[in-house]
Design goal:
Elements: E1 5-10, H1 15-25, E2 36-41, H2 47-59, E3 65-71, H3 74-77, E4 83-86, H4 98-119, E5 125-128, H5 133-142, E6 152-154, H6 157-171, E7 178-179, E8 182-184, E9 192-194, E10 199-200, E11 203-204, H7 211-223, H8 225-233, H9 239-254, E12 262-267, E13 279-287, E14 290-293, H10 301-320
Parallel strand pairs: 1-2, 1-4, 2-3, 4-5, 5-6
Antiparallel strand pairs: 7-10, 8-9, 10-11, 12-13, 13-14
The structure holds ligand NAX.
């Protein structure tokens, strides 16, 4: 019998957590032959709701669900975890400055980095979803000195998927026809969705759409999609965010398609001139459980300016949490 894989989810009673837990439990992340034990973390006021999530998970009778742990203790949630999806974060309250939000979350993610360091499996793979995701991932890995920083990533897959959807709609093709989309930088309004290397049905995407559309329509639409969803739904993206988290971890664990790449925010190794150490979204290929930044892409002046702008924002965020990294 295969040993179950331990998957920790923080903020598991929240909007995204409520989607994620069921999809993972049903085998959609690691496949139908991998039993999973879900280790769910919440803050004490949400433990009642978390109990309800646990009850519903059991009621699904998923063949791939080998157990559920529901707790408010990080050391329990991360014990021997093979995967940790860090979704729980402090939302921006009324009158709260972005700087305060950064600091409040920095405290959560430094504590969780330490708890992962002390309790998780040595090969744990961490995905940070809670915002500001890139900088939270930076804080987490800096507080986990015994773990390989390459085990810490942040989610820009939702932005990547949004970019695929926009390009598919514009060209009248299916998302399946598109290869080599890239999302550079921060999961924020400075992100840079880049179609320069994309093909659609094998044809270069830049030859199918005009530059004005890319600059004035495509890029801002993808950057502002989160705000547009909030405006339409009254609450932020949840199902699509959970779906992107599943895509991210599945591709990391099981491999990205051989003829394509995906976008993941990972600790920079200086590729493309991006400051080493910050958690920046790059095009990556995943194989045998490891990611690798795609090298050698030609970068235009237009792209360079946008890649630098989103890097500058991440450097500013890093400087705002200096004491915790
Ligand atoms: P919710 O407010 O619905 O859920 C968050 C949950 O986290 C709550 O149940 C809360 O009790 C819990 N929580 C708070 N602090 C915690 C802690 N220290 N330990 C454990 N649990 C804790 O938010 P939801 O809509 O699920 O969004 C979660 C996070 O994802 C937010 O930070 C949000 O901004 C971020 N997002 C990130 C995206 C990305 O692409 N990287 C996209 C979607 C989403 O906006």
């Amino acid at each position: 019998m295969t040993q179950p894989t331990r998957v920790a989810i923080t903020g598991a009673a929240g909007q995204i957590g409520y989607q994620l837990a069921f999809r993972i439990a049903s085998g959609q992340m690691l496949g139908p032959n991998t039993p999973v034990i879900l280790q769910l973390l919440e803050i004490p006021p949400a433990l009642g709701a978390l109990k309800g999530v646990e009850m519903e998970l059991l009621d699904c009778a998923f063949p791939t669900l080998a157990g559920v742990v529901a707790t408010d203790k990080a050391e329990e949630a991360f014990a021997d975890a093979h995967y940790a999806l860090l979704v729980g974060a402090k939302p921006r309250g009324a009158g709260m400055e972005r700087k305060d939000l950064l600091l409040e979350n920095a405290k959560i993610f430094s504590a969780q980095g330490k708890a992962l360091n002390d309790n998780a499996d040595r090969q744990v793979r961490v995905l940070v979803v809670g915002n500001p995701a890139n900088t939270n991932a930076l804080i987490a890995y800096r507080n986990a000195p015994d773990l390989d920083p390459a085990r810490f990533t942040a989610m820009t897959r939702l932005d990547h998927n949004r970019a695929l959807a926009q390009l598919a709609a514009k060209t009248g093709k299916s998302v399946n026809a598109i290869r080599q989309m890239t999302l550079w930088g921060n999961h924020s309004a400075t992100q840079y969705p880049d179609i320069s290397h994309c093909t659609v049905d094998g044809k270069p995407a830049p030859s199918l759409v005009d530059e004005t559309w890319v600059r004035d329509d495509f890029i801002p639409t993808v950057q502002q999609r989160g705000a547009a969803i909030i405006k339409a739904r009254g609450v932020s993206s949840a199902a699509s965010a959970a779906s992107a988290a599943i895509d991210h971890v599945r591709d990391w664990a099981l491999g990205s398609p051989a003829d394509d790449w995906v976008s993941m925010a990972v600790p920079s190794d200086g590729s493309y001139g991006i400051t080493e150490g910050i958690v920046y979204s790059f095009p990556v290929r995943c194989k045998q459980g490891r990611w690798e930044i795609v090298q050698g892409l030609e970068i235009s002046e237009f792209s360079r300016t946008r890649m630098k702008a989103t890097e500058a924002e991440l450097l500013e965020e890093r400087d705002g949490v200096r004491d915790l990294i």
